[in-house]
Design a protein that fits this description.
Length: 338
């Protein structure tokens, strides 16, 4: 199958690229710069004849994907991952909402206008588009694909983290609306992960530019939380390799169309992460938090749960354990020089 992958230099997308190539797909990827393209290509010399790329410097520009979707041989599927995930913003509208929303709609419009052979578009959404902050940590709540974040345009402007959650919610809503109103030749599937941990591919990152969801692990082994760490804000996690596999399965399995997939391995706490690092990497003993968190890092009344049955049944995902994920994340940080 010929597949277009956007934002391939990202933490998650770099794993998607690897699976696509190893599964024998013919891949075109988009990245912002020539340098990022070359770094990715150099990781897969054996697949050189199955991979090409197009530079898309800014997904927030309408029409950004018009050229990227035109291909001979033509595409059958598109995996759209590119979207800002960081909190270093001064303008929520321009730096978070627009790239997320315009980026997503530009991919869909381009596919409809110029790539009539595309049958499936897989979009990386998020637990951010599912969670409802009014629910807090309520232990009686079980989140699933049926839930939508009720965030408003106004709340989106409150701070960068609400801005990010809104960007994912509004972008995903725009995608489902596009399919309903435009009735294109393709259907859509979304992958909605919570906090993603797991190994960082060395061709995509340096220690100075660690992706947002792994920052905490690097901070822990660099001693930033020596004097204690707060409770985590989100108690659900998943390994990047499962997230990547889900994107590929959702791109090729006919029955994945029209569905959201809540990709969640389970609950975790910061204390559990600390304990795993201490067990496997005793060299960090002196820089990890000295005091144990109360209640092993969970709220004393408990916390919400998640239903991951659709991802197991429809996509065949078998979830990687927190222990393996954190162990492999730290190993990858050591490769980067930590
Ligand atoms: P990364 O920051 O590593 O990847 C983001 C990718 O999007 C990068 O390739 C980045 O390019 C690209 N990008 C961002 N803004 C633009 C823009 N304006 N123009 C062109 N490219 C842009 O993060 P992740 O891999 O973690 O995130 C990938 C996707 O997964 C995102 O959609 C994110 O919302 C989603 N997600 C991530 C979770 C996590 O915990 N990691 C959880 C849930 C969802 P560049 O590097 O050149 O800036």
């Amino acid at each position: 199958t010929r597949i277009l992958l956007t934002g391939a230099s990202g933490f998650i997308a770099a794993h998607i690229l690897e699976i696509l190539l190893k599964n024998g797909h013919k891949v075109r990827f988009t990245v912002r710069t020539e340098e990022k393209a070359q770094a990715l290509l150099s990781a897969y010399p054996e697949y050189a004849s199955n991979v090409d790329y197009v530079l898309v410097p800014d997904i927030a520009v309408p029409g950004a994907f018009d050229e990227a979707v035109k291909s001979d041989p033509p595409f059958e599927a598109i995996i759209h991952t590119a979207s800002p995930f960081h909190f270093r913003v001064t303008d929520i509208q321009k730096q978070l909402l627009e790239p997320a929303i315009i980026g997503t709609t530009s991919v869909l419009k381009a596919a409809k206008a110029y790539a009539p052979t595309v049958k499936r578009v897989v979009i990386t959404s998020s637990f951010a588009a599912i969670v409802d902050r009014a629910i807090g940590n309520d232990p009686s709540k079980t989140y699933s694909e049926a839930d939508w974040n009720p965030i408003t345009e106004e709340q989106a402007q409150e701070n960068a983290s609400e801005g990010y959650r809104a960007s994912k919610t509004f972008a995903e809503k725009a995608a489902w609306k596009f399919v309903e109103e435009e009735k294109p030749n393709f259907d859509v599937a979304t992958i909605n992960p919570p906090l993603v941990y797991g190994p960082i591919k060395k061709e995509t990152s340096t220690l100075k530019q660690i992706n947002t969801s792994n920052e905490r692990i690097l901070d822990l082994i660099q001693g930033k939380y020596k004097d204690g760490i707060a409770q985590t804000a989100v108690f659900l996690w998943v390994d990047v390799r499962n997230v990547a596999q889900a994107h590929v399965e959702a791109a090729v399995r006919p029955d994945a169309g029209g569905k959201r997939f809540f990709l969640v391995a389970g609950k975790f706490s910061n204390q559990e992460v600390v304990d795993i690092i201490a067990k496997h990497y005793p060299e960090y003993k002196d820089v990890l938090p000295k005091e144990r968190q109360e209640n092993d890092g969970f709220p004393k009344d408990g916390v919400y749960s998640a239903d991951n049955s659709r991802s197991r049944q429809v996509l065949g995902i078998e979830y990687i354990s927190l222990e393996d994920s954190i162990k492999d994340t730290v190993a990858s940080l050591k490769v980067l020089g930590a």
